[in-house]
Amino acid sequence: MRKSKSRQAIFLLTASLGLILLGTDAAQATSVSGRFGLWSYVRDDTVDHVQVVPLLSLNVNRIGNGDWSFESTLRGFADYQNGDANNTSAVRVNRALLIWKPQASKWEVRAGQQWLTEGIGRGNVAGLWGAYKFNRKTDAHVYAGSRLASSLSLDEENPDQGIAAGFNIRTKFGPRRLGLSYYYVGKDGDVLYNGVGLDYYCTSIRDLSMRARLHMNLEQSAIETGQITANWEAVDDLLITADVRTQTPRIFEDSFFAMFLEDSKTNSARVGATWEFEEETYVTGMAYTIFTELDQLYKVRAGIGDSGFEFGYTHWLSADKGDMDGFYGEARCDYKTLEGSFGFDYSRGSNSEVRPNTEDQVIFAGVEWSPLKSLTLGARGEHLKDPEHTEDWRALFSLMTNFRSKVRSGS
C-alpha cells in the first residue's frame, strides 16, 4: 500500500508541477492547446445503462519560449444503471508528462506517465523516457519506470505491478526501416516478462509496401508475434493486400495460465483485393482463415460500392462446423457541415452443427455536425435483434472541441 501511495504521489506531483509552470509562465508560453470531449453511451436491454465519459487534454508547449513543455490528459467515468449511480465513477489520469526538448539538440527527455509503443514494449509506464537522434536515419529510445494500469484513479489505491524498462533502436536504409527493441518487466525480484523484437518496414518499391515483425517472449521461449503484411498495387486501380501471422497472448505474471501459452497460439492468414473499375466505383473482396488443430475456420466477404455506399455478402465457417451467411450495406452522405451514415448487417445460420438456424440483425444510423471548425457534435444509434435477447437498442452521443492560443512573450 505504501508503494502504491508513493506512485500516486509521484503522478500528482508531476501534474502539479506542470500546472505550477502553467500558472507562472502562461504569459510567456508560446502556445497553449488542448481538447475537451464528452461521450454519453445509452443502452436499453436487460439493464438500462447510461455512461458519461468526459475527457480533458491540456498541453503547454515551449513554456516561456524555452525548452520545456507539459502534456496531460484526464478522463472521467460515471455509470448509471436503472437510474442509480454505480460505484465505478472515477477521475483518472491517462497522461501527465513534463518534456524537455531543445530545438537544436539531439536529445528529448520525458518525465511522468505515458503509454508506450516502442517496438515490443507496450504498456503504461511512469518514469523517465529519453530519445537521442544520432543522425537523420538513426535514433534510439530508452525508458524505465513503474508499470501501471491503463490509467490511475485519483480516489483508489493503485496496485503494484512491478517495474518496466526497455529500449528501441531504429535506422533507415533508403525506403526501408529496421528496428530492434527489448522490454523487461520485473516485480519483487521475479522476472514477469522478458522479450526482444525485430521490426521491418518498407515503403513502396515498385508498387509494393511491406511490414514484418518478429517478437520473441524470451521468458517463455516462444514466438509472441510473427507477422508479414504486404500491399501491392498490381496494376492501375487494383490493390492487393495480404497478411500472415502467428500470435501468442502476452502473459506477465508467472501464473498457472502460462502453461497454456502454446495452446492459445493463433495462426491466421488474410488476403484482400479492391478494384476500381470506374471513377469512384469499386468491387472489393476478402478471405480470412484461422488455423487450429481441429478446424480450419474461415470468413469470406465480397462487395461493391463507391464514395457514397457499399453493399456486400459474407459467409463464414465457425467452430463445430457451424456456418453463417449474411448481407451488409452502408450509405454515406456529406452536406456542408453534416456527415451522415446509415446501414445494416444481417446474418442467418448456425454457430455449430448442433444449434438450429438463428438470425442476427443490426441496423444503425449516425450523424456528425461541425458548426465550427473546432467543434464537432455526433450521434449514433443501433437497433439489435438476436436470439439471446429481445430487441435492444443503444446510442452514443459525443461532443469534441479543440482549442489553441498563442501568447507573445511578456504580454
Summarize this structure briefly.
This protein has one helix at residues 2-25, and strands at residues 31-44, 48-61, 68-81, 84-85, 90-100, 107-118, 121-133, 138-148, 152-153, 163-173, 176-187, 190-205, 208-217, 222-235, 238-247, 266-278, 281-291, 296-306, 309-317, 323-335, 338-349, 358-372, 375-385, 392-406. 6% of the residues lie in helices and 67% in strands.
Description:
The protein is mostly beta strands and 411 residues long. The chain is built from one helix and 24 strands. The protein has one helix at 2-25; strands at residues 31-44, 48-61, 68-81, 84-85, 90-100, 107-118, 121-133, 138-148, 152-153, 163-173, 176-187, 190-205, 208-217, 222-235, 238-247, 266-278, 281-291, 296-306, 309-317, 323-335, 338-349, 358-372, 375-385, 392-406. It has a 22-stranded antiparallel β-barrel.
Q: Could you state the order of secondary-structure elements as H and E?
A: HEEEEEEEEEEEEEEEEEEEEEEEE
Low-confidence residue ranges: 1-10, 12-18, 20-27
Radius of gyration from the alpha-carbon trace, in angstroms: 25 Å
Strand percentage lies at over 45%
- With helices defined by DSSP (H or I, 4 residues minimum), what is the helix count? 1
Judged by helices, strands and strand pairing, the structural class is mainly beta
The main β sheet shows up as: 22 strands, antiparallel, barrel
Mean pLDDT: 84
* Helical coverage, percent range: under 10%
> N-to-C terminal Cα separation, in Å?
46 Å
Count of distinct strands: 24
